[in-house]
């Protein structure tokens, strides 16, 4: 009888469909990941659901908390390096058999290697990876690394570096970053308190606690991060910035680090740039409406002029800009970007990293690349009047310029440029479209259920005909939040001849808005209300749009 494959087991257990399996196998050809992790990334199942199904089919024990079976004497048989490399946790020996925790019971090569190096028969117990990693810390005493740094002022820098470069501290920091990457976190917050240090991950825009560290470990972890980030480890009284590159699951992730002093120690925030594995920078792959997709494609075909994208930090502007560049990019045109920082590298596009210390700013970088004969220019942000003026001139002289501004809505960006000192007629003749963007959380497809729509919400959102909305009750797949993933909503305003004349003549914001309303333009509020009606988001998310946009 042939051995059943992993994917076939999950299909037979009705956890996934055959079509979903084939899609995951297709993705596996482009990313070096195990099939199970790909299915989890696709949010088709949770790790626990997968392991319970495998344990039922393969007749192996499932244990959510394997540490309660841990016999620390087994560490004399198996090295930390072997256990960490193969992601297993040796547990105990019984009747000549070594039991170990794993989340991959079909990795027979590792099982045979473990048997060979220990001299025992081996038998797996299925456990989540987070529990295995925690067990490794306990088994090999990584949680007990409490080297004090209280006397560091009296020690030389070389001695301090040696202490924080010890294997347990390095591995602990690497494990934190790898864990954040595996759950598509955008940021890691390392926050010292009086008694412990809290580590939180920002996932889909929301912070959630990942782990709590012993207070004695904070200085070690913070110093290790500051060393690899190129920051001054002796300076703890001033905010600092740094960056480094980390290899996570065969992928290099650029990480930007910010530190700030607090009474309990330095708080560090690590931003994982371009690390979201669910994002494909392609208009057909990002989660937006068909109408918005068509409008963005129409904008991308503009031969010259400026496209401005507005919205707060974390609203998905960079994803949209990258997707538009991907849409535009062909061997026949030259695309150059000036970014701070470069969040994702692309083949065929020249990307320039801002370096203020070396004198490379948005303005100076833009001046330089104009001498590089570009067709398309992407500016990470228009921050000042100098950059705005150069961008406007570039657009007027035949370049297509894409950039961002921090304003509440699309039309406000017109007023902002004029406030920066750009002449209204130049703004009118160069701007081709302005887009406001936000991200709203999507109702979890696994626990979403219809609930009555409150009367005040019907009035607030002018939805008299709607009686119910979808809300997530909270389940393991959405980490009991009721939401899973996010979708972009847009406010897209094309600058036609009438708007150009109005801008040149100094029209007020209310006059500009009245005109675009008469043209049937859909605003951010309209787009998010459409998602409520389609059962994709909630009134709770809609309020965030309603009360953040004038």
Fold blueprint:
Elements: H1 6-12, H2 18-28, H3 35-41, H4 47-58, E1 61-62, H5 80-86, E2 89-94, E3 97-102, H6 108-118, E4 121-126, H7 129-139, H8 157-164, H9 167-182, E5 187-192, E6 196-203, E7 206-214, H10 218-228, E8 240-248, E9 251-262, E10 265-273, H11 290-300, E11 305-310, H12 317-328, E12 335-339, E13 350-353, H13 362-370, E14 376-379, H14 385-396, E15 400-405, H15 412-419, H16 424-430, E16 431-443, E17 448-452, H17 455-460, E18 468-472, E19 483-494, H18 497-504, H19 509-518, H20 524-533, H21 539-546
Parallel strand pairs: 1-4, 3-4, 11-15, 11-16, 12-13, 12-14, 14-15
Antiparallel strand pairs: 2-3, 5-6, 5-10, 6-7, 8-9, 9-10, 16-19, 17-18
Commentary on this structure:
This protein has 550 residues and is an alpha/beta fold. Helices cover 37% and strands 24% of the residues. The protein is built from 21 helices and 19 strands. The strands form 4 sheets. Strands 13-12-14-15-11-16-19 form a 7-stranded mixed β-sheet, sandwiched between helices. A 6-stranded antiparallel β-sheet has the order 7-6-5-10-9-8. Strands 1-4-3-2 form a 4-stranded mixed β-sheet. Helix 9 crosses helix 10, helix 13 packs parallel to helix 14 and helix 14 packs across helix 16. It is globular and about 90 Å long. About 2% of the residues have low confidence.
